[in-house]
Amino acid sequence: FNWAMDEEALNSSNPGAEFGLKLILDISQQDYIPYLSSAAGARLMLHQQKSFPFLKDQGIYAMAGTETSIGVLVDELERMGYPYSDCTMNGSDVPVKNL
User: I want to staple 45 with a disulfide (CB 3.0 to 4.6 A). Which of 32, 59, 79, 98 is the partner?
Assistant: First the structure.
């Protein structure tokens, strides 16, 4: 819906379920092959706009034929570096490198 690396994010200006994103999905359950797929539905995930969604590891499953509502509270955490803590800003001062 709102994933793009260079595009401006679409925002909701009011809180509450009436002003959020609403979707009606056609699951096409008749096209599912028995014994190959255990369920029919959609995988839903909320993530930052410029991050890639890893649906296999995260998200929730919305079953076909049901209504699903997700409430979200966004919290931002900023780790402060010296002199407040020993946190590193970009990892350049840490001897271990990510693979």
Answer: 59
**Is position 2 within any domain?**
yes
| CA 8 – CA 55 distance, rounded (Å) | 23
Q: How many angstroms separate the Cα of 11 from the Cα of each of 1, 2, 49, 91?
A: 11, 9, 11, 32
Apex 37 CA angle, 61 and 35, nearest 5: 145
Element (H, E) at 41: strand 41-44
Q: How many domains does the chain have?
A: 1
Residue 10 within any structural domain of the chain = yes
Query: The tokens 């049901």 sit on which residue?
Result: 66
* DSSP of 57-85: TS-EEEETTS---------------TTT-
Domain of residue 46: give its range: 1-72
